[in-house]
Design goal:
504 residues; mainly alpha; 83% helix
Length: 504
């Protein structure tokens, strides 16, 4: 992938994620106003339950992505046609089987009794879950076209489509809320927009790849086994991801009630979406990582990993100081004091987000090279530990216990293991980590700490505190890093890439 395309993909990814965050900033208070905490909490619990249907993926999407990237590096368009068709029909088979079990579970399981809701909301649980589940399964085969577009080094186009459908979904959701249709309408809008986006992406990809067809004649049994083999470990990662990030809302909804879900989920989702900006930027490098690994260019792979680590640690440190100094005040201004999760839980979230951002490069290396077996096994252990601790601690400390369980599980497992596994692939170990990754941040971190402490001693409140804290921290951290920590050659390289972005 050329530098220009990486920059273009990153820029459009910023735009897409920025629009998603902005739409959430607008919609969340509207959700809470029109739906109320309990109904909105129920909607979030349903989304968490439905997310487990992603396990039907069994990692095929990531396998297709890696296979297409490798084939594209060799200009093997015949191989790409076969990979896409095989991946699509594998999904259709799996989804057809999964749909039978899902519908049976929805109809036979007393979900209205397992999830704590009151009054008429009990009658809404099953319809919303059924509609959301069906649409989710219908969308799964379509993910093949999205990952294919990314692996063809057209990430910026994939993200542009994302922008368009994010805006369409925003308009649809806003209409549902304003007309008071409720969460059944939300389920229809979310599902219909997702299905439409998949169809449009298929039409577009078919115009790019010569002879692309979903005809059964392109299905390759040997290739199908090849897609499933590494996919088993991608599936394991998906399962663990659900246990790590998808169970909190369900546990809170079952133990404390759906009204307690909204404050927790709103804060957690906002921070995860913010961290996701970094994740999307790093994921833009996946095709490059896969290609370099296929070409056995380990020196270049180590260079990309080192640069990505330095970038992510910089964002993580800056985010840490911004969230500590202005985060709680912003959340209260945004959703109101009644819907704020509380300082203790919020600070635990900040620690979790810091770790998450710094792990993105290691995740990209392990996923892009398909050397993720150990990572997958450790992630399962992390997920099980998270569920166990959250179920235990929610009875002791409420939502704080759930957040603490998630953080403790991460620190005990992949919080260190992912760095170790990435080191085995790239050779970027402790020495490089200390000298090239952490050392450059000594001065900017020290300056930011002094600034944050000084701001905490000033009698600032409301938006004045938020704006002054954000501006002051950025004006200290960023210049110190740029002028003090970076060498002249690095500054020249950054300036060149910025100019490349502006003139791309």
């Amino acid at each position: 992938m050329t530098i220009k395309r990486i920059i273009a993909g990153t820029a459009v990814s910023f735009l897409n994620t920025g629009i998603s965050i902005l739409s959430n900033l607008i919609l969340v208070p509207i959700y809470l106003y029109y739906l109320g905490r309990e109904q909105y909490g129920l909607w979030l619990v349903v989304l968490s339950i439905v997310s487990y249907l992603g396990l039907s993926n069994i990692g095929i999407a990531q396998s297709v992505s890696n296979f297409v990237a490798a084939a594209n590096a060799k200009k093997d368009y015949s191989g790409i046609r076969s990979i896409v068709a095989t991946g699509f029909w594998l999904y259709v088979i799996i989804v057809s089987i999964a749909a039978i079990f899902v519908l049976g579970a929805v109809l036979l399981t007393p979900l209205d009794k397992l999830i704590k809701v009151s009054g008429s909301l009990k009658d809404v649980v099953i319809p919303v879950l059924a509609i959301s589940s069906i649409f989710f399964l219908l969308q799964l085969p379509m993910t093949v076209f999205r990952v294919t577009l990314r692996s063809l080094n057209l990430i910026y186009k994939e993200q542009l489509f994302g922008v368009i459908f994010t805006l369409i979904q925003f308009i649809g959701v806003l209409a549902i809320l304003l007309f008071g249709i409720g969460i059944v309408g939300l389920a229809v809008v979310y599902g219909a927009v997702g299905l439409l986006s998949g169809i449009v992406l298929f039409i577009y990809v078919r115009g790019i790849v010569p002879g692309l067809s979903l005809s059964g004649k392109f299905f390759d049994n040997k290739l199908a086994k090849g897609l499933i083999a590494p996919g088993i470990y991608f599936f394991t990662l998906q399962l663990s991801g659900g246990l790590i990030f998808g169970t909190d809302n369900i546990i809170i909804g079952a133990v404390l009630g759906t009204a307690a879900v909204a404050p927790y989920a709103v804060a957690f989702r906002f921070l995860m979406m913010s961290a996701g900006i970094v994740g999307i930027m790093i994921s833009n490098m996946l095709p490059t990582i896969t290609s370099l690994y296929a070409l056995n260019d380990r020196d270049r792979l180590a260079e990309i990993y080192t640069n990505a680590l330095r970038f992510c640690f910089g964002i993580a440190f800056l985010s840490l100081f911004l969230l500590i100094s202005a985060g709680p005040d912003f959340m209260i201004k945004w959703v109101g004091a009644d819907n704020y999760v509380g300082n203790a839980t919020f600070y635990l979230f900040i620690c979790l987000i810091f770790i998450q951002i710094t792990l993105w490069p290691s995740d990209a290396i392990l996923m892009g090279t398909t050397q993720h077996r150990g990572y997958a096994k450790m992630a399962v252990f992390e997920g099980i530990l998270n569920v166990a601790l959250s179920l235990w601690w929610v009875h002791l400390w409420g939502v704080i216990g759930v957040a603490a369980g998630t953080l403790a599980a991460r620190l005990a497992t992949n919080g260190w293991f992912m760095f170790y596994r990435a080191y085995a692939i790239t050779g970027v170990g402790t020495r490089v980590f200390m000298t090239k990754i952490l050392k450059p941040f000594i001065v900017p971190v020290s300056g930011a700490l002094i600034m944050v402490y000084g701001l905490s001693q000033m009698p600032l409140t409301g938006w004045y505190k938020i704006i002054i804290s954000v501006m002051s921290t950025c004006l200290v951290f960023i210049p110190l890093f740029y002028f003090v920590s970076l060498s002249r050659d690095k500054r020249i390289e950054i300036n060149r890439r910025i100019r490349g972005l502006l003139w791309a």
